[in-house]
Specification:
192 residues, alpha/beta, seven-stranded mixed sheet, 7 strands, 36% helix, 24% strand, disordered N terminus, S-adenosylmethionine-dependent methyltransferase activity, SAM-dependent_MTases_sf
Length: 192
């Protein structure tokens, strides 16, 4: 059981989450000129996948750059990854707290977050990050939060904000961190 859990964890870390985010971003049908925000972007997995789909758009990542939450997490590492993926010309990186975003209301077409919001220790802080994500979405904008904790609460906060088409769905075994007890869910919505 321990070996199987380790194998699933390794698959998720090395391949599974990449495939899941590729499918999620493809499903959104981006036109290529959108403004995308990645909350807690870390080394840039989702940020750079989004940027690759934005030949005339911008992808902005915001993070506190804490190595405690993700090993090797730094702005320099993310820039290096953006250059390696040949999307640095479409990327902006910002140091900041997702509970108090330094962006105008309705500034982004798509806001994403992958396994970041749960790092905020207090429930109210996580709720504030979700509210901020919704605040910076333009009308008609989309939000996608992948996390393995608190997804129903995130959905509740989004409904309280007035979000439309709020849903929570399981991302399947490719996004398990060790087994079905550590599955990742996607919270999705649209700003009316």
């Amino acid at each position: 059981m321990l070996v199987a859990g380790g194998a699933v964890f390794a698959h998720t870390t090395l391949r599974g989450k990449f495939a899941v985010w590729d499918a999620e971003l493809d499903r959104l049908g981006l036109k290529g000129d959108e403004r995308v925000l990645d909350l807690g972007c870390g080394r840039g997995l989702v940020l750079l996948k989004a940027a690759a789909r934005l030949p005339s758009g911008r992808a902005t990542g915001i993070d506190l750059w804490s190595a405690k939450d993700q090993s090797g997490n730094s702005q320099d590492a993310t820039w290096a990854n953006a250059r390696a993926e040949e999307v640095a010309d479409r990327v902006d990186l910002v140091t900041g707290d997702m509970r108090d975003l330094p962006f105008d209301d309705a500034a982004f077409d798509l806001v994403v977050s992958s396994l970041a919001i749960h790092n905020i220790p207090q429930e109210e802080g996580r709720a504030e990050a979700v509210r901020e994500a919704f605040r910076v979405l333009r009308p008609g904008g989309l939000l996608r939060i992948a996390d393995f904790r608190n997804a129903p609460r995130y959905a509740e906060v989004l409904r309280e904000c007035g979000a439309a088409d709020v849903e929570v769905y399981d991302l399947g075994w490719r996004f398990w961190y060790g087994g079905p007890h550590a599955r990742t869910s996607m919270v999705a919505c649209r700003r009316p």
